[in-house]
Fold:
Amino acid sequence: MGKYINNSKDNGLLIVISGPSGAGKGTVCKSLLEESNNLKLSISVTTRKPRIGEKEGINYYFIDHKKFNKMLNDGDLLEYAKVYDNYYGTPKEKVLKELSLGNDVILEIDIQGALKVKSKFPDGVFIFIMPPSMEELKNRITNRGTETENELSKRFKASYEEINYISKYNYVVINDKIHEAVKKVKSIIIAEKCRVDRINSKLEDIKGGK
Amino acid sequence: MGKYINNSKDNGLLIVISGPSGAGKGTVCKSLLEESNNLKLSISVTTRKPRIGEKEGINYYFIDHKKFNKMLNDGDLLEYAKVYDNYYGTPKEKVLKELSLGNDVILEIDIQGALKVKSKFPDGVFIFIMPPSMEELKNRITNRGTETENELSKRFKASYEEINYISKYNYVVINDKIHEAVKKVKSIIIAEKCRVDRINSKLEDIKGGK
Structure:
C-alpha cells in the first residue's frame, strides 16, 4: 500500500499514541476525548477476550480469528499487530473518512502498529506515553489485577523493551500527573497545527489578500 | 563564532519570535511574559529614538552608534541587524546566562536577526507571527500613528517581503485573536519540551530506575 500524504489544509491530524502497557495511554486518551472537539478515537478490532468493564464498540470491537483474517485479507486494516497471542487491528475506512472531514483522529496502538502506521502516514504525530519510572510502571501493571502472573511478567519485559523504540516517535510525554500529561498532548496537537510545513497553503491565502 | 548546542537537560529553550511589523509580536510577547514562569525576555539594544511610551531597559536599551559599535567589536552581540537606518542588537551574555539557569529566553527580533541566531542556535524554536491578512496588517501599521508616510510605506513593503522567509521558521502563528495566538505560542513551548530529541537524557534516568 502507498503512503497517505496529507496535502489538504482542511484534513485532520492523525495522532498516534502508544507506549508501554501501564504507562496510562488509555486514561490520557479518555481525558483528551472528553476535553476536545473535532477529535475522534479510532476503535480497534481485537481477537482477545474483553477485560472486566470493557465494552464492545467503546474499548474495542471484539471479533473472532475468522473475522479478523477476512478483514486482513480484504485490506480493511490500516495496521495490525500480534500482542501476547492476540491480534489487534485498526479499521482503515473510518480513519480516512474522519481525517478527510477535518477531524483529528487518535490511534491508541502498540509500538508494532505505530511503526506500520508511520510508514504509511509519515506526517502523523507520534506520541510515546512514558511512566515516570520503571518501578512505578511495575506497580501500575501489578495493581491492575486483571492478568495472571505469567502475563504480568511478559508485559513488563515487553514494556521495558518498547522503550528502546522511542526514537521512532516525535514526542515523549511522561505521565506522572494525568492532568499535566493531557495538557502536554493537547499542546502538541495545537503546536503541530502551527508547524510551517503543515500551514503553507493557508499562507498563500493570507498573501493573496494583499 | 561556533554553534551553541544545548546539550544539558536542564538548559532553557531559546524562543525566537519574529514576523512583520504590525503582526502583533510585541503584544504576544507581553502576554506570554505575564502568564509564564521561567520565561525571560531578552532586551535588545538599539540606536533608534524611543517611540512615545517606550522605556529604557523595558522596551530597549537606547544607545548611540559609538556604544553600539563598541559592543559589536567586542563580540558582545548575539546578532545585530540594520532596519530602516537604525541598528538593533541582542546582548549575548544575559541570554546565555538565563539559558544555563534553566530559564526559557524569548528574543523578539526581526527576520535578519532571526536567521543569524538560527545559524548559532540550531535547536532554538523559531516562531513567525502573522497578521490574519495583508489588509489587516496595513490597517494595523497605519493606525499605530507613530511614523511618517514614507516610513509606513517602507515598513509595509518590508513586511510583505519578510513573509517569503517563513520557511526558515519552525512555526507560524496567525495573530487573529491575541488570546488564541498566545495560547498557541505557549503550546509550542510545552510541545517542544516533549520532543524526543530534547528529552533523551531524561529517558536514561527513567530506564535507570528499573
Observations:
- The first strand of chain A starts at residue 14 and ends at 18.
- Strands of chain A lie at 14-18, 39-41, 44-46, 60-62, 77-83, 86-91, 104-108, 125-130, 171-174.
